[in-house]
Specification:
By secondary structure, the protein is an alpha/beta fold. The protein has a single domain, classed as P-loop containing nucleotide triphosphate hydrolases (Rossmann fold, 3-Layer(aba) Sandwich), CATH 3.40.50. The chain contains 9 helices and 10 strands. The strands form 2 sheets. Strands 6-7-8-3-9-10 form a 6-stranded mixed sheet, with helices on both faces. A 4-stranded antiparallel sheet has the order 2-1-4-5, with helices on one face. It binds adenosine-5'-diphosphate and magnesium ion. The site of magnesium ion has 5 residues, from helix 1.
Length: 252
């Protein structure tokens, strides 16, 4: 049985212009789990997430993926890692000048040398997984916001990654589309066995999909554990956050 965590972050620190955003952060993401990173706006959630696929590098400390340190790798050496760790960005944009098919096929063409038939089969499979059929020839402009999100998710899982990193996947979406996104996150976890890390301050989403949650505050995780444990935590900041006492400037 595999027991090493998929990601292991150790003593990771990151500052910008003299301001410490992450201060000696330590955490593991276990294989197959959905790990939530919560916290107020500007607390460093996106910065922490981008360390996991080395879009940003630590000032000190390390990130290990599947047993190997990745935080110091060159861009070239990172290419196979990026194939295994997908990311769905905040406001994930599709390529507007490309059809849905070409959008989803993009990472496949970049990383693999598939025949046309195999390419079509993979694109169809991933669109079906996010509940979309017969829209391959449509342009993004013809799609609703929720459908664009689904296509973006299909594109990010096209390479059958082991992990998917989600940055605020429901920001700006109506409750119904948000619920769809939550189901899709669960479906990719269950059907593809992917490990997911979700940055969000959408508590409805977090409660729905999260196996464990981490609360980022002042550069460190004040809390990491299950929802049940979060409910019993005596941490005052976590309590305030869960009670919805948001800062007035916390609306994104
Ligand atoms: N590339 C960057 N250059 C300078 N400052 C940055 C950069 N990325 C993030 N920051 C700063 O780090 C802090 C945390 O940002 P971020 O991780 O985006 O917060 P959030 O929790 O809202 O996702 C913010 O103060 C932001 O301005
Ligand atoms: Mg962010």
């Amino acid at each position: 049985m595999e027991t090493t965590p998929l990601f292991a972050v150790r003593a990771l620190s990151k500052s910008y212009g003299g301001r410490t955003v992450l201060a000696s952060l330590d955490f593991d993401v276990r294989r197959g789990e959905c790990f939530i990173i919560m916290g107020r706006s500007g607390s460093g959630k996106s910065v922490a997430l981008r360390q996991l696929n080395v879009l940003e590098r630590p000032d000190s400390g390390s990130v290990t993926f599947d047993g190997a340190v990745i935080s110091h790798l060159t861009e070239k050496a990172l290419k196979p890692i990026r194939k295994r760790v997908a990311m769905l960005f905040q406001g994930a944009a599709l390529f507007d000048s490309m059809t849905v098919f070409d959008n989803v096929a993009f990472p496949l063409r970049e990383h693999l040398d598939l025949s046309r038939a195999d390419l079509e089969q993979r694109v169809k499979k991933h669109l079906a997984l996010v509940g979309l059929v017969d829209i391959e020839e449509k342009m993004p402009a013809a799609l609703s916001g929720g459908m664009k999100k689904r296509v973006a998710l299909a594109r990010s899982i096209a390479l059958d990654p082991e992990a998917v990193l989600f940055d605020e996947p429901t920001t700006g979406l109506d409750p119904r589309t948000s619920a769809t996104i939550a189901r899709l996150i669960q479906a990719t976890q269950e059907k593809l066995g992917v490990t997911s890390v979700v940055v969000t301050h959408d508590l409805v989403l977090a409660r729905r999909v999260g196996d464990r949650v981490a609360f980022l505050h002042d550069g460190t995780f004040r809390f990491v554990g299950t929802w049940d444990e979060a409910g019993h935590s005596s941490d005052r900041e976590l309590g305030k956050f869960l009670a919805g006492e948001e800062d007035i400037d916390d609306v994104e």
